[in-house]
Amino acid sequence: MRRLRNLVLGVSATVLLAAGAGLAIARLARQPSEQCHRYPGCVAVSASRPPGVVIDDEPALGLHKPTAIAMSHGHLWVTDAGGNSVTEFAGRAAGKPVVWSGQRYGFSRPGAITVGRNVIWVANSDSITEMRTTDGKVIKVVRGSAWIDKPRSLVLFGRKLWVANAASITEINAVTGTPVAKYRENRYGFNHPSAVAISHRRLWVANSGNDSVTEMDATTGAFIRVLSGRRFRFGDPISEIATPTRLWVASPGSNSLSEIDTTTAKPVRVIGQRSGIVGPAAMALAAGRIWVANAGNSSVAEIDTASGGLISLLAGARYGFASPAGLIADHGRIWVMNQASATVTELTPQKSRPDSRH
Predict the structure, then answer these.
(1) Per the domain annotation, does 355 fall within a domain?
(2) Are 189 and 180 in contact (CB under 8 A)?
(3) Per-residue pLDDT band at 91 (split at 50, 70, 90)
(4) Which domain holds residue 155?
């Protein structure tokens, strides 16, 4: 995690040199290899031609040091550590933004964010704020240094809100906001937990401090195992995304995505730099595709989930990528949060034209 933060803040000057002419390159395939059936959070998106681009950079967005991005009911929510605020703006570029801030929200260097039904949870340096997506009203602020300590990632599982702290994992009742249990590093192998994901009723915790992933029972919190070693090729893992049968772990330290079978916890493949992965910071699933925000060279890679092959690599001034550190897919669009330029790039992938030979 520490290495990625230095990477994210320091690479933007290198990006444009690597981007060359600034065009989408490496177009290798035309049709999706699989569908989005039963994949939570997955939407039907294809980028078989260069996507349409809109860059949201208006002062009204209130972005200074954006840290995380989420989508709820067609609206984007972006946390901003610089302004101690959360910006909400409609999914379409013309939507009017609203900046939520003030003492009642308890925002303090807000970072991670996750969404539920009509609510969002925002992780602050020493608390978690729950607010309604319909009107921005604060529902509750969960405090307590014994439970909340520099949280870096949040994930919802039923009525459980799992929180990755600096050195532990906390389970919180998502309905009442009451802390339920705290799981410490000695027994579970935690070392700077940086990301959490749910799949196959398992909680997967990426540990950036010791290049490992801890597998837990998401229902009971019981320890299952620690995944580590050369075959996984974890290197400062900081981002995860999951389906019912697969877990992908992004490692900027090894410039790779590790694909893992969630039923066996065995590695399936490692996707590396040949597939355009350079300092991966965030991922999103979209209809048989993984979209990867590369902080290492300010690009976005489109990967085929079936083969692990590169479909397209988007880079250059046209896209406005600048140390992208957040990415979300929803309703046929992709949004990329650019940390270095405090902007959001909206991509509208286009379907392939029919082959004129048939």
Answers:
(1) no
(2) no
(3) low
(4) 2-347
